[in-house]
Amino acid sequence: MVSSTEYGSHTWELLLTVDHQYEGVEKEFKLQVTGDLHVGGLMLKLVEKIEIAQDWSDYAFWWEQKKCWLLKTHWTLDKCGVQADAKLIFTTQHKMLRLRLPNMKTVRLKVSFSSMVFRAVSDICKMLNIRRSEELSLLKQSEGTLKKKKKKDKNSKEPATEDILNLCNSPVSSGLPANPGLYSKTMTPIYDPVSGSPASSTITWFSDGSLNEQNCSILALSHPTCSPEMLAEMYQPRTLADKAKLNAGWLDSSRSLMEQGVLEEDQLLLRFKYYTFFDLNPKYDAVRINQIYEQARWAIMLEEIDCTEEEMLIFAALQAQYHVSKLSLSSETQDSTCESEVDEVEAALSNLEVTLEGGSKNNILEDITDIPKLADNLKLVRPKKLALKAIKTYWFVFRDTSISYFKNKESAQGEPIEKLNLKGCEVVPDVNVAAKKFGIKLLIPVADGMNEVYLRCDNEDQYARWMAACVLASKGRTMADSSYKPEVQKILSFLQMKNWTMCSQAASEPENVDMKPECFVSPRYIKKFKSKQLTARILEAHQNVSQMSLVEAKLRFIQAWQSLPEFGLSYYIVRFKGSKKDDVLGVSYNRLIRIDMATGDPITTWRFSNMKQWNVNWEIRQVAIEFDQNVSIAFTCLSADCKIIHEYIGGYIFLSTRSKDHNETLDEELFHKLTGGQE
Q1: Which end of the chain is more exposed for a tag (fewer CB within 10 A), N or C?
Q2: Domain 570-676 has CATH 3.30.499.10
Q3: pLDDT tens digits for 443-462?
């Protein structure tokens, strides 16, 4: 019995559960507490009562009903809102988690279940030696993408045992601070820039202890390709609605894993969420480059992104080259690196950085000189309602961000027939190199939707110059911008890659080559061609890339992926305010696109550069965005929580503020300010 003086009217009984692994030791404890007892004092009282000698520093209170951690140990129970009916669990903050990486390898590691996901991903990336962790996030597979796999599992007699890479003894896993995983310009390279393999002499200096040379190779090098059977078991989106399911499960970066229902030993996907790959460098980023390459490869193989037959053969040839190079590397030891090969990789990397960042190393003074113009005879194709196309040649002049066209060159001094302002338009390539077709499809925003215009060029050079000008104009830039010339070169390079697929060089006899073409192309093309036909066409294209190093083949693959019209688009099903039907919203690094769900055609484009503000009405889960020229939109998200789209917009704006001059430190507070929202 407790005396009335000891029990006092202001004390009350609190039931606490301790999550420990000791058998035969009690797990539930009742403590007499007061409202002014702080959380740290409650921990001390509980540990004294448990009477088990161990390190309790990683333990904290998890409030089961409220789904939140009590991490502010100086707060009192009253301030936290804890009362007698509260169920508090004293449990570890770091728990085991399985992560499936873009290369489909599963790693098992200890992660903080109490930190915000943004911080947890940063710690994971330090452990895996991946720089620029802000580009990645954690994805929970939605039920829709798992149904097919479950049906397959029921029919299979023997469950496949998955090879799991165990990284549970790392510094981050133990809750200790890890190496920053970043680099300075004077830092010794930790990867061979040609092969991508770790430099054994430095791997232990600049990466965490658990990521030894063998584990690093598993993450930095690609391994055997997938089989058709493996592809058949995986989720393959057929429609835009199917693609929307892929993006429904992104975790909230401003909340912890535990708060979002993730349990110990659960499996999540670690993926590149934001398609702005900043500052790629093969000397330090072999794991990062390989994981981007793998995410691109699987997106193409599973038809998550559309590509033409020509483009598919380019991707197949680069994959084939990667695996042929890897076999040749493993059969002979390379004591020295050829300088010319390193230079090629550096050149490819420089092109890729220009592609992904939209910048260039050219003199910035070019931007303030006279704005150049283009003038050429081009064919104008206007689709007509009766399924006929009107094709006519005009004299086109490209100046600033507008295209004007005239009846002929002589009349160019007068008023144009029409002037098209390309700022904010969608630019889609319409190219078939084999058929000598070089078209540019322009979808220009007008009051009631999109005005569709096709331009037809005569040759590759003309197409590259006009296409580059259109791409820049859509972003509000002119040809005086320093990125114009690199953009032209990038387009010419991509056209050259397409030429590989129709080159007349004699390919090796398919019978003499051990190649399984179904491992390099998507199921659609496996059905379309016979195996021997595919092998011959892939080998034809492969001859043009046979001299590439491992890393260069991957960088070229990433560059080709980035050149696809649908690159970087994440889809969501939404209902716009005032609309009676559902639409698809595409979120990209610089714009939002409203897409007709039935036809897949873009309806309207809004660029982030024209955005004045955005907010979320958390009560009705509606996102509202205000743009320049009094344009406002509002929509509710049907395929995912509106917080995901809100975070996407804020995340891309946050990534646009990055600079190499900022010592690579992230402003985490700014990220949460832009993405967190006030629920």
Answers
A1: N
A2: no
A3: 888 766 678 889 999 999 99
